[in-house]
Amino acid sequence: MSRPRKYSRSGTFNGAKIDTSKFIDYSIVNPGKLSIDLQFDVCQRCHLQGNAVLKEGKSFYDYRPGMKLSDYMTTFLPRYEGADDEFIMASHADRLKQSKCFIKSFKEETDEASLRPYKNALTCVTCHNPHVSVKSTGKEVFNAACKNCHGGKNQLDCTEKPEVLKKKENNCVTCHMPKSGSIDIPHVTVHDHYIRKPMKKEEIAKVKKFIGLYAVNEKNPDAKTKAKAYLQQYDKFEYKVEYLDSAKKYLSEKTQNDITNNFELLVHLYFIKQDFSKVLELTQKVGKDNLLNSILTKQTWDNQNAWTAYRIGEAYYKIKDIPSAYLFYKKADYLASYNPEFKNKLGVSLMAQNKLPEAIAIFNDVINENPKFVPALSNLGYAYLVYGNAEKAQEMYDIGYKLDPDYEMLLLNIAGLNIYKKNYKEAEVYLKKVLKKNPTNEQAKQVLNQLKAL
Question: Residue 209 is inside which H or E element, if any?
Fold first, then answer.
């Protein structure tokens, strides 16, 4: 809805008192006065969680009640055929919108002057008073909401047998919004807001078939938003190759313009696939200097430019182009200086260039900010050892081992320190720990074989 530009905190408009029985008080956003979609957006800001993709340049702090939520973020959820009974905890609005009760009641509001544009639709406030706890709301309040449409003259009544109704105490919610566990939070139950007839066991037992991600709060998100959603779904929730295949479908790289427009998401995709040669191929096509000086320059809430720089740095490090890796690690650290991994890799690239004092300073910076960040403790210990300070190296390794006794690189470094001290049996112990955790670790196998030869 449009709103006047000038209003006072006192609830007056241009100095005049507002008669709220006739007009909307624009000094405060009252969700009850919003259109149906905007009202749902207010609730969905908290009661819709999932795979949230921020719009470019936006943060999670930018949305305000009365705004269109999809202007700031698009939230995706996976949809499965044959899994209508499964849902996540904060999906109340999404589940409600799947209900026939909502679909039949929904009508686009045409009268912008209406004081209650939602009044004939089933929305959150039909059943919930935001100022009253659900636990304090009697079941008769919820049942009354159902009976406003069901049970009256010429209206659909409940067809359940009288004895069943009596057993259920005529409580509509018990059957049509049953309590269920959510799929994302164990040991918690919540009423399913997908209102419908009770499902038969054979329906629930259907085999799940993944249909795809769908945008809950936006009808037609663009291709890049969809691609980003699939990449995030893989990164944050489930390692399923079909998510990567779906992301690729939305990311063209046929022309130079396509590559430039989709560059960051393409880098993300190929980085996940560990296809570093492809990451570097794309980097060369866009240009290293162009990326460092003109493209990867923004500090944003999602750190997208920083992550892209980091991923390119990793690709260069894999081919042992350390100077190029250093430049991109440095850019990532500049854009997101409190990310310990970016700064840690910057230190690693300095150490690989034999710049030990600078590397030690970087690792100490990481540990000062994040005392429990084991990769930096491991690298700092190694840097001290290379510098000839075995005692300081041991100190760092001991701290790291107490924090994470399974971190592979740390175990290899401890083994290396023991070899340096000629404690070969002790070195074997740590190498075997690595191989127990990861039997494919070739470095551990090679060193262990060399020790056995000794």
Answer: strand 209-215
